[in-house]
Design a protein that fits this description.
Blueprint: H1 2-17, H2 29-41, H3 58-72, H4 77-88, H5 103-129, H6 135-140
Helix pairs in contact: 2-3
């Protein structure tokens, strides 16, 4: 019984410690919408497959706080993106700018799809050129 109580007590303490700060960052609805959009487009550098909006690691919390500060100072979305890219590199943005370094990120999906289509067409053409096996038809007749 004591163990059950201890487990329930510790579980209750662990939840709030890892919670994402979901409260309103701004009273102004337009500013809050900008904040939500920006934190949805910034990649968590620790998790790498989550935005900082969904991440609960310390760095994501720190970036959310930094973005709130920059918005409060009146910085534009471009200024905030530039600040993040200068500090963490293009990888921090889910939609990195089109530059020489990031061009492969924009072109690679189209190249891979094109390569896949070429492979499918070649396989289909080679299959269609193969002779039809008539052994099954003769055996059943």
């Amino acid at each position: 019984m004591k163990r059950l109580f201890l487990v329930l007590f510790l579980t209750g303490l662990a939840g709030p410690g890892h919670a994402i700060d979901t409260g309103q960052a701004f009273d102004d609805a337009e500013m809050q919408a900008r904040y939500e959009r920006i934190i949805s487009e910034v990649r968590c550098l620790v998790c790498q497959n989550q935005s900082i909006r969904d991440s609960n690691v310390f760095l994501a919390s720190d970036l959310r706080r930094e973005i709130r500060r920059l918005l409060s100072e009146g910085k534009s979305d471009a200024d905030i993106s530039e600040f993040l890219v200068t500090r963490y590199g293009d990888f921090v943005l889910y939609r990195p700018p089109m530059r020489g370094k990031t061009l492969i990120l924009w072109v690679a999906p189209f190249l891979l799809i094109g390569f896949g289509l070429v492979v499918v067409v070649r396989v289909l053409r080679s299959r269609m050129a193969m002779p039809i096996d008539d052994d099954n038809e003769q055996a059943s007749a």
